[in-house]
Amino acid sequence: MKKVLLSVVVVLILLPLAVIHASAATNVQVNATSLNLREKPSTSSRIIANVPNGTVLQAISTTGDWDKISYKGQTVYASDQYLKLYITKYKVNATSLNIRETPSTSARILGSYAKGAIISTHGQTGDWKIVTYNGRDAYVSKDYLIAVTASNTTAKPLTTGDVIVLDPGHGGSDPGAAGYGLYEKNITLDIAKRAKTKLEANGAKVYLTRSTDVYVSPDARAAYSHKVGADIFVSIHNNSYTSSSANGLDTYYNGSRDEDDNRINPYPAKSKELATFIQSSTYSATRLKNNGVKSESFIVLRKNTVPSVLVEVGFLSNSYDASLLKTSSFRDKSALGITNGIVSYFKKY
Ligand SMILES: [Zn+2]
User: Fold this and answer.
1) According to the lineage, what is the superkingdom (predicted)?
2) Which of 23, 76, 149, 259 could hold 37 in an S-S bridge, CB 3.0 to 4.6 Å?
3) Residues by chain with Cβ below 5 Å of ion ligand 1
């Protein structure tokens, strides 16, 4: 008899928890001066409570224009039009965090978030946070999430949603410019790899059009942005000129149609802004002569599908610029400058 009583007590304690876990709660916030919480989904129904603007509530489900809400252990109803999704941000603290179709470790995996990614959640169920993935609710384990505070948000200004293509100029059979024992194809690859590391440390997703000494056609480079779903394209080059006195830093965008094929980059204004950010930040980091932002119809720019720029970091035909580009510390400064310009651009867009 005693044993039976004990098991009844255990069931009573566990039952409310099981009920909470069974239904996902979406966090919603009152978006009105105040909001009536009612006994039933009707404006003539009894008012249980009146809550002020900004109150965060847990919505269990939606029926018509009414949200069913769990409020202080009671089920109440509130008009849907005065509620908005309440988003909480978290940082991913796992090598890779699976995004699942339902809140279960055996559920289908829809995708994953990389370590350090900042994600937005709008609810929870048990040990799972609800995220929006490809336009629908999906679930991630809360055990691998760290709440984002003001300080660790500023530490990572970009997210894996910021997709960048870096294009190291030339490669393989095409060495590009040469001077003072340096080949452009090697310098551009080194700067691009350094910029990739820095941008990833800032939280971004970065692709290189080449990561080894291989030839890639200009058309393939331009097409790469669409292929990987990039937001921006940044081509990295070093300049060269017949006169050895020419030196400094130039950044190009494509602002007018090509004379031969009549093509133009679809985002000339944004490209110009990106070029301006990169020129300014790379000038600050390198102190090369500032030759400014210019328009040119290079294939990698005009045949691209996203805002695109081409930065010429110094002249290999100039002894001063070449002596700087020879050092890894200067190439690292160049990469930092490019990174900072890209971060400024994404802060705006
Ligand atoms: Zn070049």
Assistant:
1) Bacteria
2) 76
3) 169, 176, 237
